[in-house]
Specification:
Elements: E1 12-14, E2 17-18, H1 31-37, E3 54-55, E4 71-74, H2 87-99, E5 104-109, H3 112-120, H4 124-127, E6 132-137, H5 145-153, E7 158-163, E8 180-184, H6 196-209, E9 212-217, H7 223-226, H8 249-281
Parallel strand pairs: 1-4, 4-5, 5-6, 6-7, 7-8, 8-9
Antiparallel strand pairs: 2-3
C-alpha cells in the first residue's frame, strides 16, 4: 500500500489482493500487470509471483494505521470482485472500510454483476455508507456501458464511473444515479488513441446531468507531454465527500485490534489451505 499515490484522483492505494485476469478490451495494456510482471521471480518482492491472483491478508488492517483522513483507491493492483476471491474475504475488506470510517474508499471493478449482487446481499451493511464509493470501469460501448446499469441497480450510496482507457465514442449515456465520472486516455507503449470529441461529449453530458467530471489525462506514449487540459481547462471535480473526524487514539486502537484479528484469522486460514494442498500432493 502507498500513502502517496501518483493517481490524480486519489491520495493513497490499498491492496489486500494482488493480481488479476483479463476480461475485456480495457485490460489489454493493464498497467498493474506490466508493473507486477517486472518482478516475477524476484525473491521476497511483493510481486514475486507476478500478476497471479492472490489474497494478501497481512494488508487488511493497514487503513487503521493512518490517522489522518485520506481518499483510498482499493485494489489498484487487482479487482475486489474477481470471481476467484471468496465472498467472506470481500466481506472482511468491507468490514475494515467500515471500521476506518475517517477515510474515503474508492472501490472500482469490471466485475459489475458480482458487485451488484453482493451489495444486495453480504455487503448490504457497507452499501449505504457515505465514505465508501462504488464504481465500474467503462472503456467502450460493448463491454463497458452495460456495467453502468449494473452499478445503478446496486444499492450504493455513492456511484462512480472510471472511463479509462476510453476506447470508443460512448454516445448518449444515462447518468441518473451516478455521482462522478473520471475520463482518461490510455498511456504507455501501444496506447490506443483518444479523440477530443469523445471526451467533450462526456464532459457536456456530466454538466447537463449535474455529475462531477474529472479529466485525468490524454495519455499516449508520453502522457506527461499530452497533459490533461481539455479546451484549455483542468477538470478536477469530485462528488460530495463526507469526511469524518479522525478518531480518538483509544478508539482507533480498538478498531485496529478488530482489523488485526481479521487479518490473523485469514493468514491462518490460508496457511492451513496451503498445508492441505501440500499434503494432498505428497
Amino acid at each position: 500500500m502507498s500513502d502517496h499515490s501518483k493517481i490524480e484522483w486519489t491520495d493513497a492505494t490499498w491492496n489486500p489482493v494482488r493480481g488479476c485476469t483479463k476480461i475485456s478490451p480495457g485490460c489489454k495494456h493493464c498497467y498493474a500487470e506490466t508493473f507486477a510482471e517486472r518482478f516475477r521471480g524476484v525473491p521476497g518482492h511483493p510481486y514475486e509471483q507476478g500478476f497471479d491472483l492472490r489474497l494478501v491478508p497481512e494488508k487488511l488492517a493497514e487503513p487503521l494505521r493512518w490517522r489522518s483522513p485520506k481518499c483510498i483507491f482499493v485494489n489498484s493492483m487487482s479487482d475486489l470482485f474477481h470471481t476467484d476471491i471468496p465472498v467472506d474475504y470481500i466481506v472482511a475488506v468491507a468490514r475494515v472500510m467500515a471500521l476506518a470510517n475517517w477515510h474515503t474508499y474508492q472501490v472500482l471493478t469490471k466485475r459489475s454483476e458480482r458487485m451488484r449482487e453482493l451489495l444486495r446481499g453480504e455487503l448490504a451493511f457497507a452499501a449505504q455508507l457515505p465514505h465508501i464509493w462504488w464504481g465500474v470501469s467503462v472503456e467502450d460501448r460493448r463491454y463497458g456501458v452495460p456495467r453502468i446499469e449494473h452499478l445503478r441497480e446496486a444499492p450504493a450510496r455513492v456511484r462512480f464511473l472510471s472511463v479509462e482507457p476510453l476506447l470508443d465514442d460512448l454516445g448518449l449515456l444515462d447518468l441518473s444515479g451516478i455521482h462522478w465520472v473520471i475520463v482518461g486516455g490510455e498511456s504507455g507503449a501501444g496506447a490506443r488513441p483518444l479523440h477530443r470529441e469523445w471526451v467533450a461529449s462526456l464532459r457536456d453530458q456530466c454538466a447537463e446531468a449535474g455529475v462531477a467530471f474529472f479529466f485525468k489525462q490524454w495519455g499516449g506514449v508520453r502522457k506527461s507531454k499530452t497533459g490533461r487540459l481539455l479546451d484549455g481547462l483542468t477538470h478536477d471535480e469530485l462528488p460530495h465527500r463526507v469526511v469524518m473526524p479522525s478518531p480518538l487514539e483509544a478508539q482507533r486502537q480498538q478498531a485496529l485490534a478488530q482489523a488485526e484479528a481479521l487479518s490473523q484469522a485469514w493468514q491462518a486460514r490460508l496457511q492451513n489451505l496451503q498445508e492441505d494442498a501440500r499434503t494432498a500432493q505428497a
